[in-house]
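Supplementary Methods. Inverse-folding protocol.

Structures were first reduced to a discrete structure-token string of length 269. This string, shown here, constituted the complete conditioning input.
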């Protein structure tokens, strides 16, 4: 008899702060009978949303086959099962192979998105990746390490676009990252933020220039769990968005209907 009453929920827990989790994810954790979480990256504080009687297991030492057996067995036993990943599951979350195994056995699943570290880091640094007339694109990527990167996605090639960039999983190779970014065309004085363990108690947000990146990472002993935010245009005088300009008409406002210092707010189109 099929006792499956729920899908396996793949939950994005955000970067570390247990409050940076969606309402939906919090609700599922509060209802879950069994929770398998990536303990090397997901803090145990996330488990505060779980029931005291829920089974909670750290997957850090488990193989893919073992994690699959955990999810399958509990799901087939009629339990509500949550698989918790850091950040957003779609980005460096290794969920595809887990989903593939579930699909092979015809088992249901659902993905609950989360806040990825790049956006939490931007919020803590007080910056916007996109700037009018400066850069309108953001590249999320990583440097090559133990996990290969396609040649066409080498950092030097991506850097040639001159856009904002958030570089994951590359803290141990800060020197190589710096060289590739410079070779790709970023200037020595390009603003950089190193965001270390965003959302955790030991969080650090460091502001510097690209020429200082490798030296700063070494001095601060940052070798893991950090992002490099490459932020061209941040040092320049701001160009204001046309959206709020008094001479810019859109579906909610006629041109000339207000001024920037009028105190009135206009809805975005």
């Amino acid at each position: 008899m099929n006792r499956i009453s729920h899908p396996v929920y793949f939950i994005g827990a955000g970067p570390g702060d247990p409050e940076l989790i969606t309402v939906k994810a919090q609700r599922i954790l509060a209802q879950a009978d069994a929770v398998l979480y990536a303990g090397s990256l997901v803090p145990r504080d996330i488990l505060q949303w779980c029931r005291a009687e829920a089974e909670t297991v750290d997957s850090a030492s488990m193989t893919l086959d073992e994690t699959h057996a955990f999810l399958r067995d509990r799901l087939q036993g009629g339990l509500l099962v949550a698989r918790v990943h850091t950040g957003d599951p779609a980005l460096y979350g290794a969920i595809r192979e887990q989903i593939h195994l579930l699909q092979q056995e015809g088992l249901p699943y659902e993905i609950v998105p989360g806040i990825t570290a790049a956006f939490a880091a931007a919020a803590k640094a007080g910056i916007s990746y996109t700037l009018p007339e400066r850069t309108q694109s953001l590249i999320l990527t990583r440097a090559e390490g133990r996990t290969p990167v396609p040649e066409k996605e080498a950092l030097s090639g991506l850097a040639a676009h001159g856009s904002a960039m958030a570089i994951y999983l590359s803290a141990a190779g800060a020197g190589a990252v710096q060289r590739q970014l410079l070779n790709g065309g970023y200037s020595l004085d390009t603003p950089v933020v190193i965001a270390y363990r965003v959302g955790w108690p030991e969080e650090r947000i460091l502001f510097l220039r690209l020429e200082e990146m490798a030296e700063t990472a070494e001095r601060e002993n940052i070798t893991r769990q950090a992002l490099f935010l490459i932020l061209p245009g941040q040092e320049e005088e701001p160009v204001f968005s046309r959206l709020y300009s008094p001479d810019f008409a859109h579906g909610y406002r006629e041109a000339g209907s207000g001024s920037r210092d009028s105190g009135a707010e206009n809805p975005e189109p």
